[in-house]
Design brief:
heterodimer, A: about 270 residues, ABC transporter involved in vitamin B12 uptake, BtuC, about 80% helix, about 0% strand, B: about 260 residues, Rossmann fold, 2 domains, six-stranded mixed beta sheet, 11 strands
Chain lengths: ~270, ~260
């Protein structure tokens, strides 16, 4: 439980910070698409590493598989956008259902080993082990370092793509880097709250923070604090009320957002 | 006039040679050859869809020519696009938005120095928005936003300024602020190119006028270039003579804020 709480708090910090860009750039559907797009990678990694004797699958392989599938999702969406004049939500939607269907198809072919779809979709925070917490901490630190180093170009890109390009920001490359950062957050996050609900940790705290702050660094700090607190608090709620852990965490995050919407003074 | 300024006056700030741009099957610019003299103020006049925005965007590398070229003589170019797609809740103060203008020169990591802080403060003053510096950008009125975005361009300390329809849908104080800035920029030897469909200001407030309608119709001193014949070809007949005033009937319903 304590390990799970620590993992959930770390994931909260990561999703809270990265979620600010999701909210600012209107990438909610892209984030959801990435979250579901990781399934084929998880399924393949599971099939390859879960031994014939039914031994546990390799966690690192699953993380790498998920990341690879997330990047394929991002790259495929970008490719469709470049070769057509479709809207981003359409392109992301097509890739999203393809990856999800591919994942389910692979799962159905892995004889003898049914990938635990339940824990993929809804998370398994109490199954998180010490080693995984370390991986989560390292990935969180890596993403935070990237976000800090790319603060200016990411801010320009989020503010206005044209102005950013005119100021010398390589906008296409930076957009790809942002998708990679988002994929990392999703991959770290889906273990805790599940692929279906990781969007909740990305959106709800950042949306609440957007209503409370005037500057991006403050927004990131408030968002990270809300998301990080949602982890342990959600686990407490889950334990006392006997609810699913991942869902409880997201419910706490959304409750924080609802409170902010209601109590904050209305805009002028 | 300084020797430096005099030297600049001889050259060109922006040169387009046979510039053609296409978007799919649509030709936005067709074989445009144009030399914009350094230190001049130039109105890029034409109706909607004439390729004014495309010309400016090509100048800063946002769109690629199908053939021909367009090149600025300086790397210090500031571009203010017409539209801004920003969330109302975007977490940046007016000062933050103006500070973004320094990112181009400072790069991604270099810290703000005294000169950068001074340029940001001067830009806020020049557009009369120093008192708004700590307000959230998204909370401003349209005119105030436009001034903040112009201040962002001013903070870049550019030699060449490209403004896309800065006078569309703005309030009187903003128009005045822009008007006095145009004058100051000219005195300081900066080159200013302003895309506009406003005939009246184009022939009154600028040194040169370039009439554009996918092709370059005419280019020359403002006083002599806007003949009735040139304007008829630029606006394709959507020009009426009302007394001594020429009215662009395709646009006059926009009003001028």
């Amino acid at each position: 439980m304590r390990t799970g709480a620590l993992a959930a708090a770390l994931v909260g910090v990561l999703c809270g910070v990265v979620g600010c860009y999701v909210v600012l750039r209107g990438m909610a559907l892209m984030a959801d698409s990435l979250a579901h797009g990781v399934l084929p990678g998880v399924a393949i990694a599971f099939a390859l590493t879960a031994g014939a004797a039914g031994s546990d699958p390799d966690e690192l392989a699953i993380t790498l598989g998920a990341l690879a599938a997330g990047l394929v999702t991002a790259a495929a969406t970008s490719l469709i956008l470049r070769r057509s004049r479709l809207r981003e939500d359409t392109a992301a939607g097509v890739v999203f259902v393809f990856m999800l269907a591919l994942g389910v198809a692979i799962v159905s072919r892995v004889e003898g080993y049914i990938v635990d779809l339940n824990s993929f979709l809804f998370g398994d925070v109490l199954g998180v082990e010490g080693g995984e917490v370390l991986t989560t901490a390292v990935l969180t630190a890596l993403v935070l370092a990237l976000v800090a180093g790319l603060y200016r170009p990411f801010l320009l890109l989020s503010f206005d793509r044209k102005r950013a390009a005119a100021l010398g920001v390589p906008v296409d490359a930076l957009h790809m880097v942002m998708l990679i950062v988002l994929a990392l957050a999703v991959v770290v996050g889906f273990r805790v709250v599940g692929a279906l609900l990781v969007l909740g940790l990305l959106i709800a705290p950042a949306a609440a923070a957007a209503l409370l702050t005037r500057r991006l660094p403050a927004m990131m700090a408030v968002s990270a604090a809300i998301a990080a607190a949602s982890g342990p608090l959600g686990l407490l709620v889950s334990w006392h009320l006997d609810l699913a852990a991942g869902a409880s965490i997201v419910l706490v995050a959304v409750a924080a957002f609802a409170v902010v919407v209601v109590v904050r003074p209305a805009p002028r | 006039m300084s020797a430096e300024l005099q030297a600049k006056r001889g050259g060109a700030a922006l040169v387009a040679r046979g510039l053609s741009v296409e978007f799919g099957a649509v030709t936005a610019l067709d074989d445009v050859t144009l030399e914009i003299p350094a230190t001049a103020s130039v109105a890029l006049l034409g109706p909607n869809g004439a390729g004014k925005s495309t010309f400016l965007e090509a100048a800063v590398g946002l769109v690629r020519p199908r053939s021909g070229s367009i090149e600025a003589a300086t790397r210090r170019v500031a571009f203010v696009p017409q539209h801004l797609h920003v969330e109302a809740a975007f977490p940046a103060t007016v000062a933050d938005v103006v500070r973004m203008g320094r990112y181009g020169e400072l790069g991604w990591l270099r810290r703000f120095g005294d000169r950068d802080h001074a340029l940001v403060a001067d830009a806020l003053d020049a557009l009369g928005i120093a008192t708004l510096a700590r307000r959230r950008f998204g909370d401003l009125s349209g005119g105030e936003r436009q001034r903040a975005l112009l201040a962002q361009a001013v903070a870049q300390d550019p030699e060449l300024l490209l403004l896309d329809e800065p006078l569309t849908g703005i309030d009187a104080p903003t128009r005045d602020a822009i008007g006095s800035l145009l004058g100051r920029w000219s005195e300081e030897g900066r080159t200013v190119v302003v895309a506009t469909h406003d005939l009246e200001t184009a022939s009154r407030d600028y040194d040169y006028v370039a009439c554009l309608n996918r092709r370059l119709i005419a280019f020359g001193p403002a006083a002599t270039t806007c003949t009735e014949e040139v304007l008829a070809r630029t606006f394709e007949g959507h020009v009426l003579r009302v007394g001594s005033l020429l009215v662009d009937t395709a646009h006059h319903h926009h009003g001028s804020g």
